[in-house]
């Protein structure tokens, strides 16, 4: 199982970013996927999750209405569209899959929201 995130960067408050997570080593379309983030000095927290077919989605209250999770099962990729970014969204963002009762994580991508 391999997960590779991309798309992070430095953005001003109010700006947007689109994160991608490319998956391999398992049948992507069979598994729910999720995005987490970890800010300095804080615990890793769930940001958004999407079911295997994309029909069920959940968000942390802090990002509802601003972030959108989606997936392309033909391309084995999950996305996180982030709009109206705030300084408190600054964190390393990770994608995760639970595969055979083990959690697999990508290496993370840094998102910094600052003027």
Low-pLDDT segments: none
**Separation of termini?**
37 Å
Please report the number of helical segments. 0
DSSP helix fraction: under 10%
Question: What is the β-strand count?
Answer: 11
Describe the protein's architecture and organization.
The chain is mainly beta and 115 residues long. Helix content is 0%, strand content 53%. The protein is built from no helices and 11 strands. It has strands at 2-6, 9-11, 17-24, 33-38, 45-50, 57-59, 67-72, 77-82, 91-99, 102-105, 109-113. The chain starts with a strand and ends with a strand.
Task: Summarize the structure in short.
It contains no helices and eleven strands.
Based on the model shown, name its key terms:
115 residues; mainly beta; seven-stranded mixed β-sheet; 11 strands; 0% helix; 53% strand; globular
SSE diagram, text form:
Blueprint lengths: L1 E5 L2 E3 L5 E8 L8 E6 L6 E6 L6 E3 L7 E6 L4 E6 L8 E9 L2 E4 L3 E5 L2
Parallel strand pairs: 2-11
Antiparallel strand pairs: 1-3, 3-8, 4-5, 4-9, 5-6, 7-8, 9-10, 9-11
